[in-house]
Amino acid sequence: MTVTLYGIKNCDTVKKARKWLEQAGIDYRFVDHRADGLDPELLAHWLDVLGWEQVLNKRGTTYRTLSDADKASLGPDTAAALLLAHPAMIKRPLLNIDGELHLGFKPELYARLFNQ
User: Fold this and answer.
1) Which family is this sequence assigned to (predicted)?
2) Domains with residue ranges and CATH for the chain
């Protein structure tokens, strides 16, 4: 099983997810998409599979600092460029288990995903 967790290392929710994975003994790779960069093709895949509305985090401070014009112009054609420019606006964590994508962290979801 290949497990990759994407997020930002100082995000509290990402910290909780990483701690859960470590305590459950799950071997995973962590990618900090703000520090390590984000592959445009990978982001395009996430947007295709999950939809831009799900991937975009509208509750974070980065989104709130966008201009009203940027917010109004958001859509399927503009989301990728905005998320590449501001990777902190990607909802996190994003968990990839053998190609299956899951957004967010809830202990009960992770327990179900890993049969814990």
Assistant:
1) Belongs to the ArsC family.
2) 3-113 (3.40.30.10)
